[in-house]
Amino acid sequence: MRPLIDRYRVRLPVSDSTPVVSLGEGSTPLLRAPRLSERLGADVYLKWEGANPTGSFKDRGMTVAISKALEQGARAVVCASTGNTAASAAAYAARAGVAALVLQPAGAVASAKLAQARALGARVLEVRGSFDEALEAARVLADRGTHVLVNSLNPLRLEGQKTAAFEILDELGVAPDVLALPYGGGGNLCAYARGFEEGGAGRPRILAGEAAQRSTTVASAIRIAEPVHAREVEEAIRASNGAIVSLDDDAILDAWRELALDEGVLCEPSSAAGLAALTVSELEPDMRIVCVVTGHGLKDPETAARLSPPPVSVDPDPDAIAEAAG
After folding, report:
1. In this model, does residue 93 exceed pLDDT 90?
2. For residue 154, what is the enclosing H or E element?
3. Fewer CB within 10 Å, N- or C-terminus of the chain?
């Protein structure tokens, strides 16, 4: 598979001298969702970003950010993270041979994401505070010149992430009528808006699903109290005649179950926020809809285990097994 940077080189801020740091990101499936399509009276597709190398959409932006950091002679990168950025930064930094420093809000990150970052060699520090406080500390370190910031405040991240919109256009031939996706910090939404605008095939109506209780939601990947891209998000939503949909945790988890049980897509809870937003929005019949599913369910196995039926113990007897199977 060609690296994402090579596939979209003419649309990215790279040159022939940029060393490409890649793990095979992008080219993720666009899955038609037949049961969701029937229920919603629409033509629904799932952009399955959990198929990226570290299990989330973050890899699209990280390949560009780390490649450019390496080109500029960086020896270390830093990020604040609720989990997915940390795993991606750690992986691509390891691939590039540079150090990665991860600042995470204490007690707010799913264990699988933390394990990813640690196993990939990142220096992980738990900040006694919120994500927003961790991000501010990361920005100060970057300003001192010791580290390159690889959060979405780094514009190179959004340049990489906009390629998901290019892939949708390549596959569908036109922009969807509606794009639904989770809204945490807002960087990914801005990247999609940029990608569709640059793609020149029209802009979809954007529905952004955010947690009503941002600071405490079960959807840990969007547990961000103060979205750093809030103003740009509002502009993108207004330009697309879209909406920001506030969702309680029950609505997000209902959508999470629906993706798993009806479409066979196991995502982390935050990734279902786009579908949850669709479910409560008014949709015209027969619309073409793309729902972005941002991260794999194995990012948060504790939630999956807690919300799923436990296994049933049986004797190794066919009759007993048949009876237990119902």
Report:
1. yes
2. none
3. C
Segment holding 230, helix H or strand E: helix 230-239
Structural domains of the chain sorted by starting position, each given as residue range(s) with its CATH number in brackets: 4-56+156-306 (3.40.50.1100), 58-154 (3.40.50.1100)
CB atoms within 10 A of CB 31: 17
pTM over 0.90: yes
104-152 tens-digit pLDDT: 988 878 888 889 999 999 999 999 999 899 999 999 999 999 999 999 9
By C-alpha distance, which of 270, 267, 157 is closest to 214? 270
Asked if 296 contacts 272 with a C-beta cutoff of 8 angstroms, the reply is: no
What mean pLDDT is predicted for residues 205-209? Answer: 98
Q: Cβ(77)–Cβ(89) under 8 Å?
A: yes
C-alpha to C-alpha distance for 130 and 213, rounded to whole angstroms: 14
